[in-house]
Amino acid sequence: MNPGTNILIKHIQIYTEHNVIENGFVKIENGKIKELGILGGSSSITQLSDQERYEEITLPAHYKAIPGLIDVHIHGVNGADTMDATIEALETMASALPKEGTTSFLATTITQENEAIERALRNARDYISDHQSPGEAEVLGIHLEGPFVNSKRAGAQPVEYIVDPNVELFKKWQELSNDTIRLVTLAPEQPGGLQLIEYLKENGIIASIGHSDATYEEVLDAITAGATHVTHLFNGMKGMHHREPGVVGAALLRDELQTELIADGIHVRPEMVKLVYNQKGPGGLLLITDAMRAKCLKNGTYDLGGQDVIVRDDKAFLHDGTLAGSILKMDQAVKNMLTFTNCSLESVIEMASENPAKELNVFDRKGSIAEGKDADLVILDENHDVVMTFCKGKLAFKRE
Length: 400
Known about the structure:
Layout (H helix, E strand, L loop, with lengths): L6 E9 L4 E10 L2 E7 L16 E4 L5 E4 L1 E6 L1 E2 L2 E2 L5 H10 L5 E7 L5 H17 L7 E8 L21 H10 L4 E6 L6 H10 L3 E4 L6 H10 L3 E2 L15 H8 L4 E5 L7 H11 L4 E4 L11 E5 L2 E6 L2 E3 L12 H12 L3 H15 L17 E4 L5 E6 L2 E5 L2
Parallel strand pairs: 1-4, 1-5, 6-9, 9-10, 10-11, 11-12, 12-13, 13-14, 14-15
Antiparallel strand pairs: 1-2, 2-3, 5-19, 7-8, 16-17, 17-18, 19-20, 20-21
Helix pairs in contact: 5-6, 7-8, 8-9
């Protein structure tokens, strides 16, 4: 399939913004969704005089087309990590992620010495401006996870590099990144936390509460300051107690907070995933992987933020047993949500595509299947396994 090929996908179920089209077609032209319709319907493809200009892909009628998945929290995959600060590392990530249905993502950093963070920011800036191409997952920006977190809830964030939230330091980093930092994980209860949240809000950057020991009242203060997001619910935060709801209680109760969830059954056991879904609903959740470089690789020892991470039996952990990111794939997160909660595929699409696109202000071109949007499409079989992934209209993955 040539890079500039116009594509016609036929005979599949299409999960659009408003309904499911049975026996449908999608026309892709110049990387965009040109037209949607029903075969044999009023806009039947057989009536289109320009049919010969398209390379046709005919699929089984039970296959489904869903919008590309958007992972706002991923450190690495297939041996590469954002903190490697090389074009090759981000290229590896962008090439590997379509295999799991991810068509765009935020390159996520980790707490480290300032120089290491700055190298990663410069590199991501350069990659975003000069090295993106169709047929690979698009880097939509940077998720700065740390160093503005609470050492009490560090998790796998290296404690020695944690610093208090600092508006001036962040300004320097945002300038360095050419304004590509889109989301910041921080602890609002730390000195300077609320001031940084206010600055982020004023500048259209998502302020996320994470690696935080905040009380419920401190979370309410953060919401007032402009926080709208919670990083990997339950993990790296004050839990819920009947006399102190903590970060978890606030995340569950407050509609202002979009909440990330690692739906691997390890970071959050299935029953708790169901509880969260029942409380927040699909409109309040974002599926993420928080994956590190070991994803797609064998059991072994790998680096994360300068620390050794042991990967064994689908778990990634430090020597002391602390969970250290995941090796979860987004397509598995989709299947897990369907299993754990008995929700619909439409609800999963909301959590894995629509919500992140809206939050990142790219819903005009991402997050749903609609005419005029980027042709970021995932084809699923009857088991919800990925058959094909298209990134901006170019085939990025095809199952053997």
